[in-house]
Amino acid sequence: MSQMYVARNPRVAARSLDGEMMIMSGRDSTLFTLNKTATIIWQAADGTTPLDEIVERKICLEFEVDHDAALEDAEALARELAGHEILQISEEPIVARKPNFGELR
Amino acid sequence: MPELTAEVERLSLVIEIGGVPVRVNTSDPGFLTMLQDRYAGFVGFAEHAEMEFEIDLTPPRSCDPEADVRVSHSQGRWLLERGDFRAEWSPETRSGWIRQSANPYSIDAVLRIVHTLVLARQGGFLLHSASAVRNGKAFLFAGVSGAGKTTISRLAPPDATLLTDEISYVRKQDSGYVAFGTPFTGELAKLGENVSAPISALYLLAQGPENRIDPVSSSEAARSLLANVLFFAEDEELVQSAFHAAFDFVSHVPVSRLTFVPDTRVWELIR
Question: Are A29 and B227 in contact (CB under 8 A)?
Fold first, then answer.
């Protein structure tokens, strides 16, 4: 079974405010507000940690949910975010990234 | 031997919005008069202009009035296009040209776009909001079409100076933000006064059964602000600038929800 790696798209602007992660697409200026689970995935999406591991370490512990079900949901979410070009997904580690100058806290 | 060339008189005027003088040059006296009327109160005679445009007037032609604006960046120059105009502007030389027919609407759109491009680099923006100055403080009233921007402008008391009923000009200055009057009008069709004041509050407009001010969370404030910022350019750097400017704004300026009934008493809350 292949792994999924996720990385934040450096071409978006992102800010966390009041616990909400807001992301704006640099391509078409669409604004996204991430829920808690999506925010965890976004913040952990360093391109080198497999999504499976993010789910196990960050989501299953936080929400006490079944790993397989959580991973399935996380993969669907990652694909959706990738569809909006705010997250990159790959079966290989994503290492060649530009600095994320868009994110400030 | 007859003269083969004739010198064309170059006419110009300076339109100063947001403290930014923009010189426009034309050879058509009628168009110049049209601009002087359109931008009355915003026409200056400054020798120094921060930007300069040559107007190339073309014969009127039919075009789609609902056509989208396209703003693109290539080789250091911005290209601005809509059905009724085509323009180019170089940030480096601060100069450009506008090709349009002799109407005030096309140049108005070009000026709005160019000001958003300039403001984005300085941490400012144009905002879909009415704004007014009272007691030396500027108040902004943001909302989509129908939210009440024109209504609250119309209800303003005599001691309030209207900056705009449609598009506010917001600049970052020192540690705060300043609102400037604009000639960009909405339904009220009345030009704002060409004055400025520090922004004291931003109100998100809602109409309801009573006049009240309610707090909003910082995240809602930022979301609502971003929903009302004018974006024209599909440019990642500028989007990033505008995004972070909105967050900086809500960390400096109080943002609340203003629910109001359409009568003058609402202004008792705004001081």
Answer: no
